[in-house]
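Quick question: what would this complex look like in 3D?
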Amino acid sequence: MSSAGNSQPNGAPAIHAEQLCRHYRMGETVIRAVDGVTLEVRAGEFVALLGSSGSGKSSILNLMAGLDRPTSGGVTVHGHNLAQLSREELARYRLHTVGMVFQSFNLIPSMTLSENVELPMRFAEIERGKRDSRAREGLRRVGLQTRMNHRPSELSGGEQQRAALARALINRPQLLLADEPTGNLDSHTGTEIMNMVREFNQQLGMTVVMVTHERALAERYAQRLIFLADGKLVSDETNLAFVRSGGTEQDRR
Amino acid sequence: MKLPDLAELAVRNLRESVLRNSLTTIGISVGVASLVAMLSLGIGLQQLASRRLMKSGLFDTVVVTSRRDLRNFNRDQESSGPAPGESRILDEATRQEIEHMPNVLEAYPDIRFITELRYEDKPHLTMVAALPSSAQSTDAFDALQGHFFSSHTAPEAVIQKTFAEELLGKTPKAGLDETNVATLAAPLLGKELTMRYAQREAAPSAPTTAAKENAAADQALAGAAYSVVSRELKLKIVGVADLDPESMRGPTRARVFLPLKLAESLHVMQPTDLREISRAPTDQPVYSSVSVRVKNPSQVQTVEDAIKKMGFNTFSILDASRSIQQFFKVLDVFLGIFGSLALAVAFIGIVNTLVMAILERRREIGIMKAIGASDGDVKRLFFAEAGAMGILGGIVGVALGWAIGQLINLGTNVYLKRQSFPPEHFWSVPWWLVAFALVFSFLVSLAAGLYPAGRAARLDPVQALRYE
């Protein structure tokens, strides 16, 4: 599988956020969920956004996903200046450029796994025959080839998250955004999922931005740790632990 | 998203909350059914009225006469076309020519004559008319006692009720005519009538002593020579008609009817024959008038014009039915409005169902948007769901409306039968009404989906996904 991410030279900026702000108005008070964040993520990088709840990490992720629009500032992802895109263009961007994984899996309960995985391809108007084979291939890659016709409720959390991963990757995005992907999983299945994410990151050269509040998890998988508090960037550091252990793998590429 | 995918997803979503969607669809069905029932009642009544008019022969018949017959129905002499003396003869060839004109159902000669009929050695004088076999379908013979002519040439007669009364020596009561035809018919059916009539018989060329140079002229005139012979024909009474099949003809109406071909073969002396003796002979029958039945009253004018162009006088009653049509248009509109009221309720039902569905599927909509569905995709999905309910409701509704119609028709006819009226068809569901009902219910449903679909499309995915 050739990922569009490979066409980008490693180290070129995949995401560039400049003075990114997202303020909500709640009655009289203004909540500064994201408050002037400037950061850059290179293509192929695995970045963890860390912080306590309410620190703004999920809001940043939503802005990067094009699900939300900044109040001020801007974010450019793989050449798309999201603030300037129309609603229609944002939908296309979400469809082709980003894949998303959520803490609560967010599979559609009335659909089987293969239908869930197929859904983004329906929106992309890919023809039926191609869809079927790609969905099967995608589910096989996450080890769910025997569960294709099951509904999400018939599966374990780990299996659901694997299906969600397959769905996120089905349109071959350049960027994977994961919002607490292991938050609803036990440590064993969490590891399983994270290994898969790392595999996609390393083998497909896919840029990964993961939101988590578990520092240990971030240190184990991410190359870079970005800490947020009250919507502001507190620190942005290379994960030394990662560089010492598996990071060499990434450096070789 | 492509249309087949859209339809598939819509149907899947409808099946997910099958009870609520079924109830909404039933609501649409009831609306469509009431619309169909009302409109088909209007159409049925209209058809009943126009069928009555049609059967009377008033509006689809053109009477053609030769211009040579100076007694014209119209007061003004036709100014266009040939002068009477030079105009064409209304003969068999002309009749056939008219019959083959477009929009003409049939053209048959009017053969009618006053003659004497003997029944049980008592003479009765009456007008006798020939009927084409197509006359069987007119209203007058709906309640025929006995049967219609067994063939075109059978020596059989159908007599009118008043003549039957005369034959039996009963005097019809003034005012309401409540005599039962069946009691009149019983003693008469199968009995024999002896008709005495004047037959025109071509005479063999009279031997002439004229000079040889006149021979050619003689030859030409020879065919026109004929003798008139008194003949008798025995007729079997096969039917007694209740209604008057010739109600439009006024005082000259006939009371005894013969099959057309039989009447033609009799060569009964006609008044016009006297006049026609002066013209060149033909071996074809010549008619004083021909009745032309047109396929549809709306085509009467065209047919009439075409026949006029051939050089004949024509007569028809037009436009009288127009005000009736107008009345039914207004009636249809009112019935349609009442029928639509139920559909309006169904409209609100669809809006409600879909708005509920949005609340219920908030998260699902958020997920779809997060994985790349555009506003348009979401909007079209809700549209498709509304449309699918509309189509389904429309189909069920049309069937339901049709069934209601049949039921009411049945009930009314049971009532009519008790009142000893002939059964009628009040109900008509033409194919265009079916198509209209289906399209209408589809469009109404789409309109009902407009607001919910727009709302679903505008849903903020971040909020929808946060919603647990």
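Answer marked as accepted. Chain B has two domains: 3-54+323-466, 58-320.
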